[in-house]
Queue: 3 jobs
Job 1
Amino acid sequence: MESTETLRSVPLGRYLYDFGLSQDDPMTELRALDINPDDRLLCVASAGELPLSILAHTPLLIDAVDISTGQLHLSKLKLATVLALDPEEAAQFLGYISCDREQRLRLLSRVEEYLDESGRRFWDDHLFFFKKGPLHYGRHERYMAKFRRLGLYLLGGEKKLYGLFECENSDDQEEYFDKVLRSDVMKRLFYIVFHPKLYKRRGIPEQGFIHEGERNLAEFLFSRFRSFCTSTPARENYFLQFSLLGSVVYYEALPAFLQDKGISVIRLHHHNIRYRHISYTDIIGQSPEGTYNKFALSNVCDWMKRDAFINLLQLIVEKADVSSKALLRYVHCAHALPEDLDQAIVPDPGRGELLCQKDRFPFYNLVPMDIRVREEIIQEH
């Protein structure tokens, strides 16, 4: 174990991963994709919450892919944590709830028993990340943390924010939000935090802004802020609590894979998840037809140029099993479908709006899609 002085001196000038907390609400994927145990799901690994929480709900087969080795190490760490620790210890170790660094380092020795050699080396080389927990050291989380105290002050202070968690239902939350919290002042902060010149240099990689001309990002995100605070039970929303307070303050809000029932399911079926260092497009191109029938696309279209994204959709149509479904998220741009895919891909924007109303992180537009393979189209005609 490295000395305390060494731990303090680890430089944080580079980012090992962009997201410490996945921004895709697993409950939305479960609803949109109609997940069942016979499915084969392809998803983006990101920070790991999505595949783990879906598996905690339904023991299906999941391939979680990412081109970032850091994101994959983080995702695997979260799985190992669930296998090694009880729910409270796991939440403390990862940084969902607070504890001291020494406790996390003690827990690390148990977690490492479930990591491969590469994973153990990776985290042993970055012990500083257990000061607050790995959740806090994503590029996005570190950026947002700089503004958290100011955001709380502008809303009216932590004491007033806690009143939101005491509300009985969404109607009460809406009334409390409008009458007590000073959200109008927050709009100015959004325009600073999400200004492209600042956010794309420090908040996320510039690749995420290749379609930035599609909309005013700060204005769009602020338009969803009220829904973020009111549309779902605040006491049960880990996205809301972590974003505004820097930790999950109510245990019932912890992700499904950190709940007793979810941990039990994952421990029985953890071999159902495979983490793959490969792009979403490449794994589909290399897979036999019918390998997957459910596709959680996250917001890949925000990061891909139109031709690359359309190529991805064409591959999905070519390789998908019958009766397949997909869910796409986007902030900037969804890309119009070409005519040759209009029968094979059937989006349902109306249902997407309904799904967004219950999404616990509603800062994305949602597009659920039915994928119809060639045989289904022929039969229909």
Job 2
Amino acid sequence: MTALRAVLLDIDGTLVDSNDAHAHAWAGALGHFGHDIAFEKIRVLIGKGGDKLLVEVAGIEKESPQGKQIDQRRAQLFARDHLPRLKAFPKARELLVRLRGDGLRLVVATSAKGAEMDALLEICEAKDLLHASTSSDDAESSKPDPDIIKAALQKAGTSASESVMLGDTPYDVEAARRGDVGTVAVRSGGWEDDALDGALAIYDDVADLLARYDNTPFARRHG
């Protein structure tokens, strides 16, 4: 088994408790422009790129004039109403410190926009621990397409077999699989185990993962 050199990190739902907030922001933005979409219909798509979410829930292309207006409104609502109240999951930074202490390169692989990614990284106090980061700005296609995974591997300077994704959604698992990367999943984003099928291992949250670290794929593949 190839030794592990890098961990590709999702943020929303994995390090920061923000999935519900994203869904509320999308619902508010869509409603503002006359599209009354149920929160639950949006919530199950959080983790996909916003371009895919808009098409699936409302049949709107993100780059269309209305799509751009909705996305701008969503960003405003998220920053104003939700971001100030978001919290990191317990032990998020401690887990990253442990991974970094093992000599692993930590590279963010998120569908979030660059500015939102930076704000979320501040919340979980992760920026000083990262080797590099990728956001939606670095990928032509968003999750569950593998573009972000491939961009993160390039920034990590590692092969797929030397890397593992840490994520919380089926879209993380699928994007990583399509990039030939295995995933360690957490349930903190709101998905049950059947939705995370294909993950190397599944934990309640990052605190659970840290508590059981010595028996996780990170420890077993390191060194």
Job 3
Amino acid sequence: MVSTFNSVSNARPQEPSPTETAPRRYRFGFVLSTALGNRTRYENFRRFAERDSEVECVWAPVKHYIAPGEPDPFRRWPGALRTRAIVLYQSAPVLERLSSLDAVMIHMYEVDLLTAVRSLWASRPLRVISSDDAPAADPNYPLHPVELLKPAWRRALRLRIDVWRARRADLLIPFSKWAGDTLVEAAGVPLDRVRPVHVGLDLGLWRAAPKPEVEGARVKLLFVGADFERKGGADLLEAFLQEGLADVAELHLVTQTAPSALPNDVYVHADLTANDPRLAALYREADIFVMPTRSDLTPWAILEAMASGCAVVTTRVGGLGDLVVEGETGLFVGVGDVLGLTRALRSLVEDPPRRRAMGAAGRKVIENQYDASVNVPRILDAMKAAVDTRALREHRLAGARR
């Protein structure tokens, strides 16, 4: 697919003075998922959004479940209905204030659909959809394996709903140009409503470290993926055991779903969380990050690996083609191509200067394009501009009626 979007300057904005007391001009709500990698997105976005002296933020983090000890009004509700109810329940801090908000950023299907219906009669607030997930209108869209199990009629119905709610949005801020292209070219969303910007990483937490070559030391391979099978973990294990890779490298798996029986020199880290300093240390110590994912959009683990100076081996699915530059910051392999994965890993294991150069180039990409201290203000600026444009339009319409 040919990209519709041009790159945007990442000039670092001036942070407000701590003594600045200007009144807040905007009131924005944020309904954001905190499941899996989305926890990183929520923490990064909130950390930098709250520095904006013009914006009053109302937060509704949604974790999709009721934690032990929390009130659970839905404990007797059946499966899918219970999950939907929990999402809306946790979104209440924002949903209860919709009429007083200038804009609401949404990353939850249930809230998106609810506010899309509400927008048929209510013009406030502006609906801003920020996600790495575009409607699956592109035939090459990397559907989640769970979606493939659903009957065709159900997927078709969901697609029609997804396209409708995307077209009802006032502003869409996808995480990648790939998702932006899908929204415009495949789903028919007007180009002027789509602004691809990834939230980015807190580079104060994610730092690169020198990776000197130590004679006789094993090369460290790192995999990070909660869904071990979908992220290509089984393919990686098979590749690791071929062509003597296990003789010269060690493999670290950050996942809670790894197989119970693993070969020597494979280490599992099952207790790490988003932005965990121990996870950051694993990235800094790794030589190669490998995630031969079978279905993905714009995974955070790739960004974290590049920020840590790792060469990357992955597949070209979803928005990964926007993150990794073939031959410069990493290598692409085919989905399910174990032999190709083995050869790619072997080529980097045997060429330390090349993998170090890829790691350094990847760090530069993150600094230039995925710095949350730059990208979060860009996202807020897009929301402010949309609110101002609507206010000006309403003012002109009111003047024309007089």
